[in-house]
Write a structure and sequence with these properties.
The radius of gyration is 16 Å and the shape is globular. By secondary structure, it is an alpha+beta fold. It contains 1 helix and 5 strands.
């Protein structure tokens, strides 16, 4: 289980340019159904248009440049997000696996 960083945290991601991103949210829903831990925007430019963001996982973070503001409410939310995020990832992976298996069965004649 991972511990999420607060929104506003500036991180460096492996193998990406620009190299710094600000965490702007959690568990984004993507069309590809792949689970991600965060979405973020380029730092210092920010969101220039509605598609100018990146989805990434906690393991891609190589450095925390600056940790975002956090209060008691934020810490409570992040604690619940740890559990919810793990359950969501498991559900998405299981649904994708089930879909693949069902596709295999339906594809056979």
């Amino acid at each position: 289980m991972i511990t999420y960083y607060p929104i506003g945290t500036i991180v460096t991601l492996e193998n990406l340019e620009p190299s710094q991103f600000m965490i702007a949210g959690y568990l984004p829903k993507r069309a590809d159904s792949k689970p991600y831990d965060y979405f973020g925007v380029s730092f210092p430019l920010g969101l220039l248009d509605e598609t100018d963001y990146i989805c990434f996982n906690h393991v891609s973070i190589t450095d925390v440049v600056h940790k975002g503001y956090s209060n008691e409410a934020c810490q409570e939310f992040i604690s619940s997000l740890d559990t919810f995020g793990e359950a969501l990832r498991t559900a998405i992976i299981n649904a994708a696996y089930k879909g693949e298996k069902e596709g295999d069965v339906h594809g056979e004649s």
